[in-house]
């Protein structure tokens, strides 16, 4: 009987913890262009090596684009400056090729096909969807940003990747479309992406 009861609780525990995981991983988010139109989705899932992001996006210029995790879950067009700087919990320099890099939010460039679609995967190494320093859901969350140009992997603060052309909020919060616009002062006098 005791064995029966304890295995019952074990099963219950497994069910409960998998329910809990489900809300965080996988996590599907919507990606928007600067006009606020949906470009598709990104699905995040936590893996041993980091957070895998499955991209299913359309409407981009063909070619390579920088893709980063930015520090705030705010995607206000047309410039998406509301997303803040890169997610950088280790306070390193930017760039996967930089000797003093990289930001945790730095990732290899993604390529949009001739029809403007990105259908592929990237991984945010070291990141989690848990409740820790490296979590993309830390605090209110973070954001996924795609730039018009590619990241050169070296120059500060953001690899000369140009304008932010797509943004998706990585958050567990409900849609906050009705919230008042962000106070620009909130992002502070931090370095601007070029
Ligand atoms: Cu960026």
From TrEMBL:
Region Disordered, annotated ranges: 171-194
Reactions catalysed: 2 superoxide + 2 H(+) = H2O2 + O2
Matching InterPro entries: SOD-like_Cu/Zn_dom_sf, SOD_Cu/Zn_/chaperone, SOD_Cu/Zn_BS, SOD_Cu_Zn_dom
Record EC number: 1.15.1.1
Domain Superoxide dismutase copper/zinc binding, first and last residues per copy: 40-170
CDD domains assigned: Cu-Zn_Superoxide_Dismutase (cd00305)
Superkingdom to which the source organism belongs: Bacteria
Similarity remark: Belongs to the Cu-Zn superoxide dismutase family.
A Pfam family hit: Sod_Cu
Protein task: Destroys radicals which are normally produced within the cells and which are toxic to biological systems. May play a role in favoring mycobacterial survival in phagocytes.
One MF annotation (Gene Ontology) recorded for this entry: superoxide dismutase activity
Keywords: Copper, Metal-binding, Oxidoreductase, Zinc
Protein name per Swiss-Prot or TrEMBL: Superoxide dismutase [Cu-Zn]
Cofactor note: Binds 1 zinc ion per subunit. Binds 1 copper ion per subunit.
Cofactor(s) named in the record: Zn(2+); Cu cation
